[in-house]
Each structure stands twice: as C-alpha cells, then as structure tokens.
Specification:
The complex is a heterodimer of chains A (319) and B (143). With 319 residues, chain A is mainly α. Chain A contains twelve helices and no strands. The chains are: A mainly alpha (319), B alpha/beta (143). Bound molecules: iron/sulfur cluster. The site of iron/sulfur cluster has 13 residues of chain B, from helix 2 and helix 4.
Chain lengths: 319, 143
Amino acid sequence: MSSALSNLFWILIFPGFLFTVVLGLAASWIVRKVSALVQWRVGPPFAQPLYDIMKLMGKEILLPQEAQRHVFIAAPLVGLAGVLLLSTMLWRITIAETAFVGDIIVAIYLMVLPSLALILGSSASASPHAAIGTSREMKLVLGYELPLVLAFVVVIIKTAGHVEPGQQLSLAAISEHATVLSVSGMLAFLASLLCVQAKLGFVPFDIAESETEVASGVIIEYSGALLAVWKLMHAMMLVALPLFLVMVFLGGFGTAGWPLVAGIGKYVLVLVLIILIKNTNPRMRIDQAMRFFWFYCGIALAVAVILATIGNYYGISWL
Amino acid sequence: MSWKTWSLKKSVWVFHVNTGACNNCDIEIVNLLTPKFDVERFGMKLVGSPRHADALLVTGVVTRQAAPRLKEVYRQTPKPCVVFAIGACACDKGIFHAGYHVVGPVDKIVREEDPNAIIAYVPGCPPKPEAMISGVVKALSAL
Ligand code: SF4
C-alpha cells in the first residue's frame, strides 16, 4: 500500500472517521441511556443514535431565506473536519506512537474548531434565536479556553520534571505519566473536565443551545442532512475529548492487554463523570459561567501552577 | 418500505405547538416524557425547533392570532412530517366551537397551507397519554 493510500485509510476508516463515528454513536447512546436511568426511565434502544442519523439524512434540507447560504452549508462540514483531524491525530499518537513538534498546540487549536464552526454556522443563519446562541457560544469559548490552557501548562510543567533533557515534550510523552496523581494535577484535571463539559455543550454549560430558552440556539435553523452532520460531529467529540483527557491526565491508552483494558476503563470513567455532572446540575447563566471559569477555575489553576513549579523545583512529585 | 420511512418510524422527533389550548392537553403531552410513559423508549423526543421535527403535536382550537403562526410552523417543518391534532379542541373545536375568535379546527388551517398534509386525530378532553401513544402508532403504521 502506498503511503497516500495508507494515510487515507488512517483518516477515513481506522481509527479516523468510521471507527470514531461508530464509537461516538455508542457513546451518545450511553449518554442517553445513563441519563434515562438516572431519571428512572427505560431509555432508548442501542441503535437509536444510528436511527436518528439515518432519519435526518433522509429528510428535506430547508435553507432560511436570508441566510448566507455558503457559510451556512459549509460550517457543519468544517466542524466535522476539525473533529475528524483531532480524533485521527489522538488515535494515531496512541496506536502508532507518532509524535511531531507542537502536537499539543495543534490539539488545542483543533479542539476550538467545532465551536468556531458552530459560531459561523449559527451567525450565518439569520435567526434572532441563533444570534443569541452565537453570542453566548462566543462568550463561553472565551470563558473556557483560559482555564483549559492553564490546565495544560500545569501538565507541561509536571511532565517537564519527568522527561530527560533532549527528549521531545509531545503528547506521547505526556500520556506516559498520570498527572492526576498529584495535587496540582488533580486540580487541573477537575477544571479541564468542566471545560470539556462546556465544549460538549452539556448541562450546566448548555447555555448556547438551551432548548427551553432559545429553542436549540445555535443549531435552530439546521434541518435534514446538515443537522445530521452536527449530530455526527457531536458524537465524534464524545470520543475525542474524553480520550484527550485520558491521554493528558490519566496516563493514556494502551494498545494491548491490561493497559488497553485500563484505558477503556479510564475512558468510561471520564464519560460517566461527564454524564453525572450533566444530570445533577441546573443550567447556569452565561455571566455565572464566565465568572466560574475565569475567577474560580482561574484561581484554582494559578494555585496548581505554583504548586507544580514548587514540586518540580524541590523534586516533590505529589505536589 | 424505503429506508427513509423505516428510519422515520424509528425516530420521531416532535415539536409542540399550542394554538390556544386550555393548557390541559399540553400537560398531558409533557406526561409522555415522564418515567411512567417514557416515549424515548420508542425514539421519540421533544425538540425545541420545528426545523428538527418530524411531527407537530398541535393542541387547541386555532385562534385568529394563532392561524398564521401555525401555517408558518408547518412551512418550517422539513417534510415528510405528520401533524397530530391533540384533543377535542384541535380535532373539532370542542367546547370553544362558537367562540368569536376561533378560526380552526387544526386540519382546516393546515390543509389551507398544504392540501396533502398527513393529519392524525387524537380526541379526548384531554386525551390520555395512552391514547396519544396509540394515535402515534396508528399514524406511523399508515405511513
Ligand atoms: S381538548 Fe380539552 S383539555 Fe385539551 S385544550 Fe381543549 S378544552 Fe383543554
């Protein structure tokens, strides 16, 4: 197989598009089923997310009259492409131990892409509800990016204490150490768990697409196949973002034997934590969310950065 | 049956339109989501935008003010879609039949917009949740 073909295989089939979509649909079933169980309901059947996507694919696509058509149609595809790249990259680093300079920065950028696509798409749709959703989504992005990057700084400081001089500080190197087993690592993990909650648009941070307030906000005008693309993007994010947390904080995924089982266990743990937070909290207002991210998470992470630096300097690994 | 109809039957997303109901029918609709009935078992869920919906649950006599809005919501729903007239009011104006503000019932207004609309009737004042589920099943098996 030539290298171009094998790259295509990586991106489109395993572990890129097909694999991640299947996993993601299963994960979104888990989200709905566990939420149902928490509320003492039975919940949907296992293939429900697949039925939803199939049905949306077969429905009519309505374009709002005043919408910016090209942007409106392109935005979901941009978002999907971003998540596709992110998940392919993360799996590839896990499975084939590839590393390249600056992969951490690339991962951070790719994680913003879905939110940017949402902002683009909804502001192109010429709907007042979507406009409110857009402004909330923008503020939310501003809110959670700061703590997420700070949490990353903690991890980088912690890992820098472990790697030998000259070795590259890449995601693969980071995923060899479970940063969460220290005070600063724990703080950073909790803060970024909440950031991931906001990135996924789950309660308490579903402010941008709150159904009861702004009628699905950012995706209100999407229908048919375009809505299906948003749903697919969301399903893939349900794989990529917890996987990212597992790699950065919990010591990564193995590829065979016990490390693989442990990796799956860690992924499920993160997913269930996210679902439980989703089901036990009311929705925040946007100003509360920003205060929460900038003020409380910001202070906690500043403390974590200081602790990590001290721990590194004096060689205390639990700090 | 084509895969489109098949998957539509497996996952019906509903949007709730109140066109002047007394609110009792609306309460019964929300009952469908509670643990006792849990229609998510059948893949149904309430959505916040008509653009995501496959079925419109319309309650109430259609008032003069509500009629153009009902038509607009119907236009905004991607086809194929089913309209459910929930309750005696929506089916045939019920106890409000002589009201000066009433232009309904629902089927008349929807047919003005689209003569071939698929409309299902669930009578009752208010209809029981069981009746609504049975109505949905009948309508879907007729698709
Ligand atoms: S059918 Fe009965 S319960 Fe329903 S809106 Fe009319 S009066 Fe109210």
